[in-house]
Amino acid sequence: MPIRVLSEEVASKIAAGEVVERPVSVVKELVENSIDAEAREIKVEVRQGGRRLVRVIDNGMGIPADEVELAFARHATSKIASLDDLSSIATLGFRGEALASIAAVSQLTIVTRTAEENVGTQLRLEGGRVAQRQKKGCPQGTVVTVENLFYNVPARLKFLRSEATERKHIDGLIYRYGMAYPHLRFSLLNDGRPTFQSLGSGELYDVLIKVYGLELAQQMHEVGSIEADNLKPGTSNRELVDVYGYISPPSLHRANRDYLTFFVNGRWVQDRMLSYAVSEAYHTLLPTGRYPIVVLCLELDPSQIDINVHPTKSEIRFLDSNAVFAAVQKAVRRTLVDRAAIPRMTGLPSQWSAQEMERRRRLVEVGTQAKAVGIETPSVFEFPEPVKLPPLRVLGQVAQTYIIAEGPEGLYLIDQHAAHERVLYERVMAERAKMAVTSQTLLEPLTIELPRVAGEESVGFLNQLGFDVEPFGGETYLVRAVPAMLAKGDIGQAIVEIVDELSEAGTAGAGEERALISLVCHSAVRAGQTLSVEEMRDLIRQLEGTTMPRTCPHGRPTMIHLSAAQLAREFGRG
Ligand code: ADP
Ligand code: MG
Prior knowledge:
Blueprint: H1 8-19, H2 23-36, E1 41-47, E2 53-58, H3 68-71, H4 98-104, E3 107-113, E4 120-126, E5 129-136, E6 141-147, H5 154-159, H6 163-180, E7 185-190, E8 193-197, H7 204-212, H8 214-219, E9 221-223, H9 227-230, E10 241-247, E11 260-264, E12 267-269, H10 272-282, E13 294-300, E14 305-306, E15 317-318, H11 321-340, H12 354-372, E16 393-398, E17 402-407, E18 410-415, H13 416-433, E19 439-449, H14 455-464, E20 468-471, E21 476-483, H15 491-504, H16 508-523, H17 533-544, E22 559-562, H18 564-570
Parallel strand pairs: 1-7, 11-13
Antiparallel strand pairs: 1-2, 2-6, 3-4, 3-6, 4-5, 7-8, 9-10, 10-13, 11-12, 14-15, 16-17, 17-18, 18-22, 19-21, 20-21
Bound molecules: adenosine-5'-diphosphate (ADP) and magnesium ion.
């Protein structure tokens, strides 16, 4: 085929595809326009998961009669005028593409009126072409109705997911905008059924209750604004990163990252670096493969971010991503540490009072309701809160791996290695905090070889951990002392792994944490090691003293509990 320029119609449909991928993209663009128009109230209506109809009604500033057609021209926007404006964008839109794109692939009607006008304008477009225009009496604001999306793009229509899937995405989107803009009133009607309504009280917490239910919201921790912390001498306002919002306690987690919600300057973004910063902050507190529920708002000077990365504007680039990473990790970690210090004596499942059982039953119920609208149920019975252990009496050892013990409420099987890891991990953290790591001098120095890449920093960190390592020429090093806890372990292997962890992790902080876990893992008693009753008692006493006795630093459980009631049931006594 010879080269030719595509017709305007084909070109506009192709361009539309970038912005409007599916019904939820339409909802997103229209809602963003309403927010930019300074609406206080935004009503969203969808039919058949948005394929049949999406309608967004706002009480914003409206579009003047003589500009309505222009709003549907490609690259027509009232939000920026020059390239320079791109570095200080304060609105959600700026590309001037959304209305043109949506109109190109649907049948669209807009009714709009500004405060200055007595009468509004109604414009109807079919596949992007104006089909009808008339004056229309209406309240101030804008109503955009998008019908039969992709009616003229059969290829797209074929690829649309099920109605239920689309509905779920639209719900998720409105929840998120509700949370990002707690001072706005959002409502959502799904096939005539109200499914969400925010109050517009200005309190994020109120919206959390609407989105996740009261029981769950009550368990969330508030992340206070950390603005003041950022004010290192010499930090200019431009470099400030403010972080605030809500995060779940370590006992509340989910199987996927869908519950990690981030807003940057009021824009919902999906960003791996931000997710990673949160994961790092929760590190060792959650079982592997589980994720917290997090709603975090970041505020930065607009010059510090680039949102013009993708037509859907859901990706973002940070000028100084290290600073953003650090701010998020610090804010989350600090909240977790502050809150974890308050002991929560909710007890073991078998010790729950009738009232507590009821509370949890309702929690599950709320979860089930939440699931119906696409939110996963919390597994409260599976993952009890981190609680102190009751005093346990050691009965013996099974398979030289598990300690069997009796408590006021039944039987406990404790993984000796995992339990010892937890004990040592908390000890080394405490010692490091006090800069008082106990080390033990070796009777004879040990020579080891470290890869050249390990470098001085790794050796410096090893020495902070209680090692005494010094260069001995080439890749050889001399080890004169080791952390006391490691004295009986395989020192050479431990050092090699610690250095590996340091160099493999994405950030210095993450590397150090992984290195610490590695040290602890090499120092802890192994599975298959026979323990005396004394040693077992000692270990259990120490485990009782930890703040998180139920998981090892890798997030695996340290113990299994069989309650007296469970035993009775199993033996047919109950
Ligand atoms: P952008 O939002 O990037 O400017 P759009 O195509 O989404 O581009 O909208 C084009 C223009 O139409 C906007 O710049 C704005 O002036 C106007 N507009 C769109 N929706 C609304 C609305 N709900 N209320 C008032 N003005 C609107
Ligand atoms: Mg827009």
